[in-house]
Amino acid sequence: MAAQPLILEHDQWRKGQGGAPACVAGESDGNTYAGLDLSGIAFSASTFSGSSFSATKFLDAVWSTCQFTNCTFAGCDMRGIAINGCKFIGCNFDDGQLANCKLFHCSFMGCTWNRLNFDQGRWKDLRLLSCTGVGITADGLHGETVNFTGSRFQGMRYTNARIN
User: Fold this and answer.
1) What string of H, E and C letters represents the secondary structure of the chain?
2) Is the pLDDT of residue 1 over 70?
3) Where in the sequence is the domain holding 82, given as residue range(s)?
4) Whole-model pTM?
5) How many structural domains is the chain composed of?
């Protein structure tokens, strides 16, 4: 089964239009989504290749052991998201809100981060390898064992942050 029907049913459920809460486990996806409410959705052991999410809410979502390749996240609200053990390869994140996020045991390889906010976020064993970006802000970010090897970020503004 593909992830798309589960994702769309979760959006309908969140909007009070039927559907059902979703746990996307062991699925694959490569579709384009816009304006969805995927708050509280769980992605587990799934593969996303070329998927595109724009203006999508992922409030308090939980993602674990997934792989995202060449995916786009534009204007997404990901406050409170918990991402554990996921790999992101060649993905683009633009104009996103990730306050209070938890990024644990994840790797971002060759990704772009533009205009993202990580206020009060928690990072642990995070690898940002050969990534680029501009306009990253964070107040109160706490990171342990964060590896920025080969990455270049411009205009980073961290206040009250503690990394490594």
Assistant:
1) CCHHHHHHHHHHHHCCCCCCCCEEECCEECCEEECCECCCCEEECCEEECCEEECCECCCCEEECCEEECCEEECCECCCCEEECCEEECCEEEEEECCCCEEECCEEECCEEEEEECCCCEEEEEEEECCEEECCEEECCEEEEEECCCCEEECCEEECCEEC
2) no
3) 3-16+29-163
4) 0.97
5) 1
